[in-house]
Amino acid sequence: HLFFLMYFINCIFAGQVTYSIPEEMAKGSFVGNIAQDLGLDLKRLRSGKARIYTEDSAEYIELNKDKGSLLVKERIDRETLCGQTTPCALHLQITLEEPIEFYTVTVEINDINDNAPSFKKDEMKFRISESAVIGAKFMLERAMDLDVGVNGLQSYSLKPTDNFNLKLQNQQDGSKKVEMVLQKHLDREAQEHLSLTLTAIDGGDPQLSGTIRVEISVLDANDNAPVFTQEIYKVIVTETAPQGTVLCTVSAADADEGSNGKVSYSIKNTLDDVPIMFEIGEENGVVTLNGNLDYEKSKDYEIHVQASDEGGLTDSCKIMVEVTDTNDNHPSINIMSKTNSVSENSSPGTVVTIFNVQDPDSGENGKVSCFIADNMPFLMKTTSKKFFSLVTDSDLDRERASEYNITVTCSDEGVPSLSSSVTLTLQISDVNDNPPVFERSSYEAYIVENNTPGLSIFTVKATDSDWNQNARVSYILEDSSVNGVPVSSYVSVSADSGVIHAVRSFDYEQIKDFQFRVKAQDGGSPPLSSNVTVKIMIQDQNDNAPQVLYPVQTGGSLVAEMVPRSADVGYLVTKVVAVDVDSGQNAWLSYKLQKATDRALFEVGLQNGEVRTIRQVTDKDAVKQRLTVIVEDNGQPSRSATVIVNVAVADSFPEVLSEFTDFTHDKEYNENLTFYLVLALAVVSFLFITCVVVIISVKIYRWRQSRILYHSNLPVIPYYPPRYSDTLGTGTLPHVYNYEVCRTTDSRKSDCKFGRAGSQNVLIMDPSSTGTISCLYGRQCRIHRDDALCFTFPINIRKSNGTVSGNSRNHRHKR
Ligand SMILES: *[C@@H]1O[C@H](CO)[C@@H](O)[C@H](O)[C@H]1NC(C)=O
Ligand SMILES: *[C@@H]1O[C@H](CO)[C@@H](O)[C@H](O)[C@H]1NC(C)=O
Q1: Is the CB of 423 within 6 Å of ligand 1?
Q2: How many angstroms separate the alpha carbon of residue 729 from the centre of ligand 2?
Q3: Are 413 and 367 in contact (CB under 8 A)?
Q4: Where's the Cadherin domain (predicted)?
Q5: Which of 396, 439, 603, 674 has a CA positioned 20 to 30 A from the CA of residue 461?
Q6: Are 237 and 247 in contact (CB under 8 A)?
Q7: Does the CB atom of residue 533 touch ligand 2 within 6 A?
Q8: Which of 317, 298, 295, 299 is nearest to 308 (CA)?
Q9: CATH of domain 332-429
């Protein structure tokens, strides 16, 4: 009221009236009493038809003529009326007629705080990188307040104030620049969104305010590096792990978002082969094996892995890969030195091969042992862990095994064990260590006499188990002599073939057998040799006719046997004695009467040549009897001789003489006859003495032998007088002197009968296994061969009338 009053007074004095009212007054509100203020009475107002005139047509104020006061006719909004212009006034003209008068009335409209500050929008959006620097300014929207003066916009506030401060800056036009200033770093990772409230405040009473939300999106900056969850990863993998095996997965976290938080992994090794051997998933960090591990090449790996985001920030870690060994390597055998052949006489311990074994595996997997088959004459020797030598163990013998295939097997101790082997072929070279060996320990060969010189008798053969030259056998006749003649004049030996040839024609009657030695010698150096005894036995041929020893056949002289007329039947007239220098059947003589004066008077013993009477001699028988006896041997073809036996049948010598006068016609003949008779006597005497000596010496020998036999109880080796030894076993003793002994260790088993004795006594020794000894002509010795020996021996000589004859009754049977 005081305020109004003051205006009122002013108006009076200015001749005009000014009123001042607040805006937004209710209709009909009193503005001022102009009648009073202008000093006009109410009548004048009415009579003067007072009116309000305004330049614009708006009629906010009306005049109440009855009361002379101004009233609010329309709502008055100062902001509409004047905007920001101050002061704001309505200019009225009050006109009166009769007289026309003008009065000026000014109505000042005073502001009231009826408008709050306001923003055009509800919110403001900002996208601010978290990397924004401190002090960065961001323009905020200004608020509007229609009120003026103190009711107008006074100040701002921004809340919360954690990151931003509000900065107000007065501008020349009086308005304010509203900015927010970053005063603390944003961290998207901590707070991605900020929501601030900007409040604008006016100065009215009560204060009014308006707000706007400031929405801030914090944009990511690549301010975080990836970080591995582990600095070191440890992986153990076997060397046999296949390609593609996943070893481990590394992971790094990046707090940033988007591309700044997108981690990619890579292997950063450059110097080694790790980038080839391993692979890492760029996005997932899975580390896989890309190559083939080999413990023997590399036992461990260090993989440097880098994680990087797209902003280029990185972190790194290490993967320690430890490779474990598996037994994946076979031992390898390397022959360092090798002999292909070794001599069979090399001493045990001779080195054949040296080799080296390598197994790149470690530990047990690389521990190698080598061996060979048990049945080999070789030994495996270890000189060091990796070097082995193969030496000969026992004596070698090329003849037993000339070649060895030695399989050396080396195996490691891994589980399962791996092994490898190599086969060495070793030849055993020959040494001349075997002499030639004859197929038999001795040879006997037969050849028929009268052979052609140069005839091959038979072949000796020796083999040599050595090889090649050492086994090349040549045959050599060893020097010896046969009957004082070098054996080389009897036989020759073909050096290459071992064929024995007769050099001369043999005569059984001269030599029955002979022996010599043949040496077989190989071609080694020095040569080895062995020898063998070869006995050549010459077989008889019937190449000699029987020879009549008695009666002596002389050219002219006459020899006659005397037969007394009183002779009985079976009187032994004489005995034809013949020999055959052949042997066996060829010397088996038989006697036959070929011709006789009186065939009925005499007979000739077929076997013994005894001429006997077969009937009583009578007086009528002629004195002079002439017998022709034929002596035949048993050879094929047989040979024979004839002898004429003169027999005188007479009681007295004169009687004979008278009959035989024709025999004595020649004196010279008689002298010759006498000479022959004396000679025959001398011969017979000599033979007798010789025989006696022989018998005595044999008896002594026998006696001694029997004593020895008695003591030893052993079979006695028979004694053959050398001249009569029966080599061919045909058993013929061609001579007069036969002496038969059958001898056994048990004489009771012996069954020897000796019916006859004499030149025809033939003992056949059967060399076959029957064990029978057959004595011909009724005598048989049937004796077990092992037990008995039977032989013939000179036995009995009787001298009678200058003749020699055998006596069958006189023989020796000795045990
Ligand atoms: C050794 O091996 C060779 C070839 O494999 C073979 O010909 C020969 O007969 C073998 N020798 C022995 C003694 O096994
Ligand atoms: C013949 O061989 C025997 C052994 O069988 C030997 O004792 C002898 O000396 C050899 N003779 C010759 C002449 O070589």
Answers
A1: no
A2: 29
A3: yes
A4: 13-119, 120-228, 229-333, 334-438, 439-548, 563-660
A5: 396
A6: yes
A7: no
A8: 317
A9: 2.60.40.60
pLDDT band of 724, cuts 50, 70, 90: very low
Query: For ligand 1, is residue 690 a contact (CB within 6 Å)?
Result: no
The rounded distance, in Å, linking the Cα atoms of 556 and 664 is 9
**Of 696, 712, 715, 697, nearest in space to 815 by CA:** 715
Query: Residue 210: which of 139, 123, 116, 142 has the closest Cα?
Result: 116
If one counts every other C-beta atom within 10 angstroms of the C-beta of residue 2, the result is: 5
Would you say residue 769 has pLDDT above 90? Answer: no
- Domain ranges, ordered by start, for the chain: 9-110, 116-221, 224-324, 332-429, 437-539, 547-650, 678-814
676: left (phi over 0), alpha (psi -120 to 50) or beta: alpha
| Superfamily of domain 224-324 in the CATH hierarchy | Cadherins (2.60.40.60)
Using a 6 Å cutoff on CB, does residue 425 contact ligand 1?
Answer: yes
Backbone Cα Rg of the chain: 85
Sign of CA dihedral 489, 494, 500, 504: negative
Mean pLDDT score across all residues of the chain = 81
Regarding the beta carbon of 531 and ligand 2, being less than 6 Å apart is answered yes
Alpha-carbon span 32 to 106, nearest angstrom:
11
- Tell me the whole-structure pTM to 2 decimals: 0.49
pLDDT digits (tens, 9 = 90+) for 366-382: 899 999 988 889 999 98
Ligand nearest to the CA of 426: 1
pLDDT of residue 806: 39
Give the 3-state DSSP-derived string for 371-423, with helices as H, strands as E and coil as C.
ECCCCCCEEEEECCCCEEEEEECCCCCCCCCCEEEEEEEEEECCCCCCEEEEE
Which atom of ligand 2 is least distant from the CA of 478?
A: 13
Task: Mean pLDDT check: name the lowest of 2-6, 262-266, 364-368, 521-525.
Answer: 2-6
pLDDT tens string 418-449:
999 999 999 999 999 999 999 999 999 999 99
| Nearest alpha-carbon partner for 315 in 279, 277, 264 | 264
DSSP-assigned letter for residue 239: T
pLDDT in tens, 117-169: 999 999 999 999 888 899 999 998 888 888 888 888 888 999 898 889 999 88
Task: Single out the residue of 512, 355, 531 nearest to residue 441, CA to CA.
Answer: 531
Work out the end-to-end distance of the chain between its first and last CA atoms, rounded to an integer number of angstroms: 207
CA-to-CA distance for 608 and 592, rounded, in angstroms? Answer: 10
**What is the dotted CATH code of the domain comprising 9-110?**
2.60.40.60
Structure tokens belonging to residue 196: 């601030």
Stretch 216-226: mean pLDDT, rounded?
89
Measured distance CA(170)–CA(460) in Å, rounded: 151
What's the 398 CA to ligand 1 centre distance in angstroms?
15
Express each pLDDT in 277-306 by its tens digit: 999 999 999 999 999 888 888 889 999 999
Please report which ligand is nearest the Cα atom of 401.
1
d(C-alpha 584, C-alpha 729), whole Å: 9
Q: Is the CB of 403 under 6 A from ligand 1?
A: yes
Which CATH superfamily, name and number, covers 116-221? Cadherins (2.60.40.60)
Q: Whose CA is nearest to atom 5 of ligand 1?
A: 405
Superfamily of domain covering 547-650: Cadherins (2.60.40.60)
CA pair distance 403, 69, nearest whole angstrom: 158
Alpha carbon nearest to ligand 1 atom 10, residue:
405
Which CATH topology does 437-539 take? Immunoglobulin-like (2.60.40)
pLDDT of residue 499: 95
Place of tokens 């390397």: 334
Q: Which residue has the least CA distance to atom 2 on ligand 1?
A: 405
What number of H helices and E strands is found in the chain? Answer: 7, 58
Residues 6+ apart with CB under 8 A from 411: 331, 368, 369, 370, 417, 418, 419, 420
